[in-house]
Amino acid sequence: MATIQRHPDKLRDRTVLLIAGTGGIGKGVASALLSRGSKVILTSRTQAKLDDTISQLLQLYPEVPQTNVSGYTLDLGSSSVEDNIKTVTEQLKRDGIEKIEHLVCLAGDPLPTSAIEDITLDSWLKASQVRTISCVLVVKHLLPFLRAAGPASSQCSPSITLTSGSVGDKPIPGGWTLLSMIAASLHGAARQLALDLKPIRVNTVSPGVVDTDLWSGMSEEQRNAFFEQTKKNMPTGRVGDVQDVAESYLWCMCDGNVTGEVVRTNSGVLIA
User: Fold this and answer.
1) How many CB atoms lie under 10 A from the CB of residue 172?
2) Where are its TM segments located (predicted)?
3) Element (DSSP H or E) covering residue 159
4) CA distance 77 to 55
5) In terms of Cα–Cα distance, which of 143, 170, 204 is closest to 17?
6) Of 40, 53, 122, 134, which sits with the fewest C-beta atoms within 10 Å of its C-beta?
7) Residue 199: its pLDDT value, please?
């Protein structure tokens, strides 16, 4: 008969790389990881945003060694994106980082809704590059760091977590065709990569509406009206909170028994 064991602290001293980790959800995940004793590496498109996020995190956790939070600039929307990713891998090696236990891809531009009549090849590629194409390239180049983390075990099971959205499951009227395609493709990517990269685990977190800067394309009045309507429609009666959503990412890292899954954290939108 199994005996009760002391629960392992699976994230303490683990190195976690958050790609595009200076956005709303990224900051929430970084904060949660620091509270668990992880070593957090962030990337951001600009040095200013990177510096600001690191400063905020260190102020929140003054007890954390400053070396536990670091970062690099990485522009995922550039035509030279693959070279940019290679530069980050070189910087990691230069800084003595040989292994990464967990890789989290959080990249996403402000939501580019577009009527089907307005979609062009260029707009399609632009919408896809940051969210899907660059995501796959990041996995490609960071894979050696994950493999260097060692064999999978209940104590430390290397993982990759992608970020999708609930529109991949439930359509939204009004110009969401591209985003629906992108979100659904990331659901499929997690399942395929989980097989191709085993025993490294791969999952996708699929948030619903979360109060972050992702909605900055709307005016404040539009955003407030959208959030209020969302609250009325949701079983939870509220818009998603970053701290709640961050728990889904930590679960994907900690549960060595989960891979190839889409983890939905969406205020109950699929039953609304």
Assistant:
1) 15
2) none
3) strand 159-163
4) 25
5) 143
6) 122
7) 94
- Phi and psi based region of residue 268 (left: phi greater than 0; alpha: psi -120 to 50; beta: remaining): left
Q: Give me 226's structure tokens.
A: 């959208």
Looking at residue 210, what DSSP letter applies? B
**Type of residue found at 46:** T
Q: Which amino acid is at 272?
A: A
Q: CA torsion angle for 213, 215, 220, 226 (degrees, to 10)?
A: -130
Query: What is the CATH class of 15-271?
Result: alpha beta
Checking 257-260 for CB contacts under 8 A at 24+ apart, the result is 258/201, 258/203, 259/159, 259/194, 259/198, 259/201, 259/202, 259/203, 260/190, 260/191, 260/194, 260/195, 260/202, 260/203
3-state secondary structure of 181: helix
Gyration radius of the chain's alpha carbons:
18
Please give the Cα distance from 69 to 138 (Å, whole number).
20
In the chain, where are the structural domains located?
A: 15-271
Class of residue 196 by CB neighbours under 10 A (exposed 0-12, middle 13-18, buried 19+) = exposed
